[in-house]
TrEMBL record:
Residues 52-70 have a biased composition (Low complexity). Belongs to the GrpE family. It comes from Westerdykella ornata. The keyword 4Fe-4S does not apply. It comes from the Eukaryota. InterPro entries: GrpE (IPR000740), GrpE_CC (IPR013805), GrpE_head (IPR009012). GO terms for cellular component: PAM complex, Tim23 associated import motor. This is GrpE protein homolog. GO terms for molecular function: adenyl-nucleotide exchange factor activity; protein homodimerization activity; protein-folding chaperone binding; unfolded protein binding. GO terms for biological process: protein folding; protein import into mitochondrial matrix. Its main location: mitochondrion.
Length: 232
């Protein structure tokens, strides 16, 4: 009796286990089918669409990079032109400033050189009077020694003239006598008073100085009045 009861209990338990496992066994194929249905590999059409999208993005990026490069190039060219213009203006300004400096320097120097021009013109008359006083004394009277006072006076005037000419030379005023070296007539520094034949001299040669000339810092202050040779 006890054995029959245990046998029945075991058979009922086996049936219960079989019934409880049956739904799980039926669900397994469904899960496997679901896994196969949602595969990770894309279809050929989806792959082509993704490739086209990627290539389109790359082309858009390349076009954007080209546009940026073009803009940068234009900006650099614009900056280069601005640099060239500014450099040209700078060089012009420097050149103008240097020209102004040189011009101002020349004007200041000219003002210094010729500041005494009017005074020098009045002073050369006194120099002419000294020269006339010295030339009026004959050389024979000076060498004979008959009148020592005259010789002393002549020497004093000669010394005064020499010191005066040296002082004037320090300030740019110089006297010149073209007949001493028999210079050629130069209308820029000579004034022809008369012409005379001189067989032993060439035409156009200065053979006599009536009034000596003066130069102030290389510029003619007074032209020398001269006599010029003319044989023909």
């Amino acid at each position: 009796m006890l054995q029959r009861t245990l046998f029945r209990s075991s058979r009922q338990a086996a049936r219960c286990v079989t019934r409880s496992q049956a739904p799980f066994a039926a669900q397994v194929p469904r899960q496997v089918g679901a896994i196969r249905w949602y595969a990770e590999q894309p279809t050929a059409k989806e792959g082509e669409t993704a490739a086209q999208k990627t290539s389109g993005e790359q082309a858009s990026q390349q076009q954007q990079q080209q546009n940026e490069a073009t803009q940068l190039k234009e900006q650099l060219e614009k900056k280069d032109m601005e640099i060239i213009n500014l450099k040209d203006k700078y060089l012009r300004s420097v050149a103008d400033f240097r020209n102004l400096q040189e011009r101002t320097k020349r004007e200041i120097q000219a003002a210094k050189d010729f500041a005494l021009q009017r005074f020098a013109k009045d002073l050369i008359d006194s120099v002419d009077n000294l020269d006339r006083a010295l030339t009026t004394v004959p050389a024979e009277k000076l060498s004979s020694g008959e009148n020592p006072d005259l010789v002393t006076l002549h020497d004093g005037l000669k010394m005064t003239e020499s010191i005066l000419l040296q002082t004037l030379k320090k300030h740019g005023l110089e006297r010149f006598d073209p007949s001493l070296e028999q210079e050629k007539f130069n209308p820029n520094i000579h004034e022809a008073v008369f012409q005379a034949p001189q067989p032993d001299k060439e035409d156009g040669t200065v053979f006599h100085t009536q009034q000596k000339g003066f130069m102030l810092n290389g510029r003619v202050l007074r032209a020398a009045k001269v006599g010029v040779v003319k044989n023909s």
